[in-house]
Structures are given as structure tokens and as C-alpha cells.
Known about the structure:
Elements: H1 2-27, H2 29-54, H3 56-71, H4 80-90
Helix pairs in contact: 2-3
Amino acid sequence: MGNEEICEEYDTDSAVALVEEYEMKRRNRADDIIAVQAVICILLTLLFIGGSIFYPTLTGEVFKEVRNLASNSYEIIPNPIDMIIVFFDKH
């Protein structure tokens, strides 16, 4: 009987620990997203700096295109919900 009690306590503790670990990971998900975005921005910055040193004309053209896309008011990828609304408004 001693072994059964130990197994039951271990299973309960491991299930509780698993739930707590899941909740902790779920809470930290926003921090992970922010960290990934920061790393992507740093890598893009390094690429632009390296590109401006080795390929200044090509990097200048890419930067102008990025600046143009960022300054335009139109959407690069259309919103599917708006497309559905427009479709139903026409019919």
C-alpha cells in the first residue's frame, strides 16, 4: 500500500505541476512575441547597414520601396472581412 500512495501523490503532483507550467508558459507568450519582433528588427537593421556598405545602390532602392510601402495609405494585403462586406453589398 505504501507504493500505491506514493504513486498517487506523484501523479497528482505531476499533473498539478504540468498545469502550472502550462499556465506560466501561456502568460509569458506575449513576452516571447515581443522578443521575436525585437530580434527581427535588429536583424533587419544589421542587413540594411551591411547592405549599405557592400551594395549601396541596391540597398537604397530597397529602402525607398519599404519607405513607399510604409507611407501609402492602401493596404498591402486586403482585409478579407472588408472584401466579404463589399461582395454582399454588391449582391
